[in-house]
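In response to the reviewer comment on reproducibility (Comment 2.3), we provide here a single inverse folding case reported in full, input and output, so that an independent group could reproduce the run without further information from us. The C-alpha cells appear first.
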C-alpha cells in the first residue's frame, strides 16, 4: 500500500538535506578563507622580496612601486567625457538646479566637483550617469567624441554612492569577490577573479581586514574608514574605466580621507578616469586633484580647468586670498559671496558664472604618453650594470646562471630577508626559474618589469592575453562606438548570476544564525503557548474546537511573515545598487527566496511538533503539518511582499495587521458560519479559512463524522464546507483544494513582491 504521506516524508528529507548543504557550504567557505589568507601572505612576501631587490639596484628617485596590479586590466583603455550645456530641472517643482554646464573630463586624471551646499554637485554627477530620475536632463553628453550617455556603457562605469551600502554579513574579501564575479565577463577565469580581488585589497589598503565581517551599527565590524574603502572597492572589482564617487570623504577624519583619495589616484596610472564630488577638502587632499569643476549657486559653472589654475583665475577677477588660507575653503567663500572683490565691490555671487561664460579658459590637450625606447634601453643597461656589480661583490662574477642556493645567498649579501619555503617556490615561478636556475638576462627582465603598474610575471601575462582575446572575439559596439562586451539575454544572465547569488546568500544565511535561532525559539514558544489551551478541546463534540484550530494558525502565520521582512526590507538600498550595476532582479529575488524557503519549512515542522506536544491533538502529525505549512508559506509570501513595498519602519506593523485581519476578522469561525455576500468573499480569499477549515473538516472525518459535531458548531462546519467546496471540487477533497488555493495565494504574493522589487523605486536602479 502506498504511504499517503510519502510526499511529506520527501519534503522533510529535502528540508534536512537543504540545511546540511548550507552547513557544509559554510564549513567549506571557512576553510577557503584560511587558504586564501595563506595565499595572500605568500604574495605579499614575494612582493616584498622583489621590491627590496629592485630598489637595492636603482637610485631612490626611481624606486619601484610597492605593488603591481595583476587583474585590474581595464575593460577599455580610456574614456573622455564631454558635456555641453548640461542642465537638470526638477519634475516636481520645475526648478532648475543645474544649468548650462559645459566642459570635459579627460582620461587618466582625477577631477573634483566642488561647490557650496545646494549648488547641484550630486545632481550634475547623476545627470552624467543617467541617474537623475527625479528631474529632466537637457543638453548633450559625448563619450569619446560620440553623442551618448554613461548609462549606455554601464559595464565600463563604477558609481560609488555617498552612503556606504555594503553587505553587512560578509567579510571584506567576500564582498569584493562576489562583486568581481557578478560584474566581470562570465568566462573570466577564477584565477583572474582572485587577482582582481587581491589588487583591490592592496590598492584600498584592506589586506589586514580582508577576513573581517563588515558589520553594522548594532554589530560592530570594521571601522568607518575601512567601510568607506569597501564601498569604493565594490566598484573597483568591476574594473571600470571611469570611476565616479559621490562625496567619498564624507564622515571621515582628514588623514583617512587623504589616504583614500591617494589610493584612488593610483588608479589613474592604469588608465582610469576618476570623477568625484567633494566638499571643502584639506589642502593636501586638494593638491591630488588634476582638474576642478566649481559650481555656483543655481548649478552654473564658475570654473572648470586644471586645479592649479583656479587660484590665479580668481585673483585675476579681483579676489585676494589671505596667506595660510586653504584654497578649497576660500573658493567656497568666494562662490558663496563671503569674500569682497577688490576690483568690483558690487560683484554678486551669481555674476561669477557670467564672468566664466565670457572668458572660458580652454584646457590644453594632455600629451600622449608613449614608451621611450631609448629610456627603456638605458634602464636595462643600468639595471644590468648594477646587477653585475652586486653579483661580483657577492662572488658570482663569472656565473651566467644562478642556482636557487646562489640566489638565496645573494639575497643574504644584499641584506634582504629570505622568503619562506612556500613563498620562495612561488617567487621562483614568477621570476622564471628553469630547472632550478635563472639567467642574468631573465633576472634583469623581471626586475625591469617591477617598475610598471602591472605585474609582468608569466602567469598574469597569460591571463591578460586571455581577457584581451576574449574581449576582441566577443565584443559588440554601442552607439558611441565603445565595446560593450558580449550581451546576454535575461535567461543567460539569470543562469550565470543565480548560482553566484545563491552561494552568496548561503554564506549570509550561515552568518545570521543568531537571528534565525531567536526567530525559531519565538515560534516554538508561541506554539507552546497557543497549544496548551487546546487540550481536550480538539474534538468535534466541543464547540470551541473550530475556534482553537483557527487561533492555532495565527502564531505560525504572524511570526513567519514578520521573520521574512528582513529578506528584502533592510537590503533594498543594496538591491538598488546591485541592480544599477547589472545584477538581474530575477536572480537576486529567487536566490534569496531559495535560501529563506528552508527556514519557513523548518519553522513549520518545529511549530507543529511543539503545538501537538502541548495540545495533545488527535490525528497524525502530518495532517496538522500540511495545514500549518501552507499557512506559513502564504504568510511568508505576504511578509516578502510587504518587505519590497512598505517602508522598513512601517513594515512590521503593516504585516501584523494584514495577517491578523486575514486570520481573525476574515476567517473567524463565527464569521464562517454566518458568511454571506461580501463576508463570504473575504473569508474565501483568506488562506487561514482554507487551512483551518481543512484541519477542522479532516478532524471531523477521522473522529466520528458529521454526526459527532456539536449542535452549535454545525453551522461552522457547513460554512467551511460551503467555502472550501464552492468551486465544485467535492471530488477533489478538502486537502487537494486547500493545496491548490494556498499554492496560488503564495505564488501571487511572491509574484507581486517580485513586481514591487522590480518596479518600485525604479529610478534608483539606473
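Designed residues, in position order:
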Amino acid at each position: 500500500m502506498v504511504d499517503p504521506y510519502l510526499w511529506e516524508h520527501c519534503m522533510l528529507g529535502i528540508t534536512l538535506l537543504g540545511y546540511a548543504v548550507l552547513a557544509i557550504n559554510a564549513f567549506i567557505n571557512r576553510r577557503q578563507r584560511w587558504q586564501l589568507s595563506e595565499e595572500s601572505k605568500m604574495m605579499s612576501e614575494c612582493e616584498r622580496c622583489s621590491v627590496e631587490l629592485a630598489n637595492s639596484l636603482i637610485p631612490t628617485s626611481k624606486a619601484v612601486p610597492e605593488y603591481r596590479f595583476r587583474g585590474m586590466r581595464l575593460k577599455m583603455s580610456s574614456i573622455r567625457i564631454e558635456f555641453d550645456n548640461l542642465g537638470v530641472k526638477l519634475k516636481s517643482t520645475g526648478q532648475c538646479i543645474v544649468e548650462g554646464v559645459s566642459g570635459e573630463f579627460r582620461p587618466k586624471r582625477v577631477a573634483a566637483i566642488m561647490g557650496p551646499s545646494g549648488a547641484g554637485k550630486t545632481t550634475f554627477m547623476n545627470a552624467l550617469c543617467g541617474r537623475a530620475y527625479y528631474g529632466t536632463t537637457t543638453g548633450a553628453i559625448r563619450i569619446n567624441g560620440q553623442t551618448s550617455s554613461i548609462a549606455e556603457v554601464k559595464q565600463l562605469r563604477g558609481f560609488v554612492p555617498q552612503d556606504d551600502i555594503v553587505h553587512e554579513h560578509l567579510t571584506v574579501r567576500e564582498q569584493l569577490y562576489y562583486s568581481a564575479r557578478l560584474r566581470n565577463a562570465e568566462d573570466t577565469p577564477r584565477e583572474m577573479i582572485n587577482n582582481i580581488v587581491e589588487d583591490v585589497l592592496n590598492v584600498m589598503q584592506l589586506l589586514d581586514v580582508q577576513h573581517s565581517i563588515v558589520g553594522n551599527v548594532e554589530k560592530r565590524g570594521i571601522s568607518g574608514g575601512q567601510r568607506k574603502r569597501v564601498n569604493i572597492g565594490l566598484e573597483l572589482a568591476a574594473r571600470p574605466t571611469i570611476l565616479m564617487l559621490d562625496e567619498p570623504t564624507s564622515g571621515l577624519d582628514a588623514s583617512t580621507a587623504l589616504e583614500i583619495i591617494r589610493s584612488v589616484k593610483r588608479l589613474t596610472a592604469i588608465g582610469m578616469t576618476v570623477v568625484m564630488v567633494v566638499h571643502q577638502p584639506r589642502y593636501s587632499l586638494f593638491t591630488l586633484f588634476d582638474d576642478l569643476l566649481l559650481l555656483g549657486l543655481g548649478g552654473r559653472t564658475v570654473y572648470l580647468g586644471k586645479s592649479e589654475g583656479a587660484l590665479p583665475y580668481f585673483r585675476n577677477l579681483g579676489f585676494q586670498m589671505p596667506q595660510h588660507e586653504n584654497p578649497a575653503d576660500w573658493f567656497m567663500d568666494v562662490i558663496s559671496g563671503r569674500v569682497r572683490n577688490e576690483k568690483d565691490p558690487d560683484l554678486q555671487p551669481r555674476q561669477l558664472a557670467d564672468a566664466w561664460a565670457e572668458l572660458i579658459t580652454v584646457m590644453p590637450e594632455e600629451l600622449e604618453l608613449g614608451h621611450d625606447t631609448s629610456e627603456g634601453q638605458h634602464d636595462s643597461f643600468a639595471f644590468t650594470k648594477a646587477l653585475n656589480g652586486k653579483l661580483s661583490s657577492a662572488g658570482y662574477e663569472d656565473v651566467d646562471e644562478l642556482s636557487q642556493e646562489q640566489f638565496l645567498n645573494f639575497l643574504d649579501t644584499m641584506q634582504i630577508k629570505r622568503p619562506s619555503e612556500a613563498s620562495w617556490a612561488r617567487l621562483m615561478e614568477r621570476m622564471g626559474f628553469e630547472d632550478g636556475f635563472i639567467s642574468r638576462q631573465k633576472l634583469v627582465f623581471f626586475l625591469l618589469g617591477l617598475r610598471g603598474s602591472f605585474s609582468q610575471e608569466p602567469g598574469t601575462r597569460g591571463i591578460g592575453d586571455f581577457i584581451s582575446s576574449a574581449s576582441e572575439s566577443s565584443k559588440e559596439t554601442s552607439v558611441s562606438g565603445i565595446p560593450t562586451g558580449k550581451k546576454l539575454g535575461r535567461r543567460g544572465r539569470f543562469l550565470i548570476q543565480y548560482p553566484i547569488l545563491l552561494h552568496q546568500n548561503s554564506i549570509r544565511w550561515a552568518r545570521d544564525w543568531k537571528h534565525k535561532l531567536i526567530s525559531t525559539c519565538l515560534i516554538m514558544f508561541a506554539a507552546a503557548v497557543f497549544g496548551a489551551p487546546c487540550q481536550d478541546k480538539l474534538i468535534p463534540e466541543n464547540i470551541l474546537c473550530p475556534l482553537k484550530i483557527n487561533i492555532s494558525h495565527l502564531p505560525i502565520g504572524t511570526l513567519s511573515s514578520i521573520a521574512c521582512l528582513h529578506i528584502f526590507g533592510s537590503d533594498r538600498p543594496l538591491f538598488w545598487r546591485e541592480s544599477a550595476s547589472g545584477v538581474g532582479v530575477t536572480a537576486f529575488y529567487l536566490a534569496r527566496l531559495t535560501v529563506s524557503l528552508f527556514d519557513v519549512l523548518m519553522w513549520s515542522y518545529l511549530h507543529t511538533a511543539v503545538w501537538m506536544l502541548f495540545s495533545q491533538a488527535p490525528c497524525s502529525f502530518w495532517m496538522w503539518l500540511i495545514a500549518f505549512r501552507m499557512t506559513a508559506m502564504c504568510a511568508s509570501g505576504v511578509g516578502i511582499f510587504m518587505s519590497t513595498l512598505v517602508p522598513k519602519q512601517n513594515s512590521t506593523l503593516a504585516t501584523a495587521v494584514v495577517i491578523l485581519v486575514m486570520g481573525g476578522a476574515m476567517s473567524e469561525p463565527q464569521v464562517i458560519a454566518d458568511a454571506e455576500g461580501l463576508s463570504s468573499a473575504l473569508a474565501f480569499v483568506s488562506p487561514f479559512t482554507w487551512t483551518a477549515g481543512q484541519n477542522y473538516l479532516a478532524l471531523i472525518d477521522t473522529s466520528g463524522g458529521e454526526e459527532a459535531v456539536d449542535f452549535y458548531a454545525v453551522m461552522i462546519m457547513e460554512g467551511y464546507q460551503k467555502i472550501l467546496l464552492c468551486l465544485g471540487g467535492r471530488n477533489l477533497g478538502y486537502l487537494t483544494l486547500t493545496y491548490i488555493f494556498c499554492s496560488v495565494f503564495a505564488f501571487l504574493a511572491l509574484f507581486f513582491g517580485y513586481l514591487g522589487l522590480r518596479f518600485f523605486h525604479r529610478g534608483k536602479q539606473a
